[in-house]
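LAB NOTEBOOK - FOLDING QUEUE
OPERATOR: T.R.
BATCH SIZE: 2
PURPOSE: Compare the predicted structure-token outputs for two unrelated chains run back to back under identical settings.
PRIORITY: normal
REVIEWER: second-year student, initials M.K.

ITEM 1
FIELD SEQUENCE / FIELD STRUCTURE:
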Amino acid sequence: MSVKVGDTAPDFTLTSQNGSTVSLQDFRGQKAVVLYFYPKDDTPGCTAESCAFRDQYEVFKTAGAEVIGVSGDSHESHQRFAAKYNLPFILLSDKGDQVRKLYGATTAFGLIPSRVTYVIDQQGVVQYVFDSMLNFKGHVEEALKTLQQLTA
């Protein structure tokens, strides 16, 4: 079952690239969260998407949001990926894709983990879902547009 607009975002706790644990609940009442699921560290599409989030990270922060990327890679892999591309935001390791399954962001083309972005407001309610394997920058653009509408 997929998480949809209007649903309360399911809480989770995962390990970040620096080895600390991060829970979605940590942000509730504090800031909005842009949660993006991506297939794999250091692949062309995922690098393009993550770098697009990096390039707009200050704009997300100004809009009162934290960006969090999630894939099945290890936290060590995330650490290398973040360092290589100067990614300033949180990357979480979802070994076994449990959180991906919880959100219903499972596979694209029946083969590879899908690329889905959720905009979650401060109250933990999903305000927007963007699902596209190939429109890497669209994930960033649509998330920013949604955040700007929330704060308007």
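ITEM 2
FIELD SEQUENCE / FIELD STRUCTURE:
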Amino acid sequence: MAAKFEIYEDAAGKYRFRLKAANGEEVASGQAYETKAAAVKGTEAVKRAAQDAELKDLTEGN
């Protein structure tokens, strides 16, 4: 099973997404959106941004 995004409605009636790993563990979640379409666009933005994302270790030098 591959990783997947899930769209859901929270207790306040807002739409959110979460990213689940292949093992079913939640590895990321998104902010609250007013519409389901906006939440879907949020998942697409994460996919685009993650393609070339670098890891910046903010603990270095501490």
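REVIEWER COMMENT (ITEM 2): The first strand starts at residue 4 and ends at 9.
FOLLOW-UP: none requested
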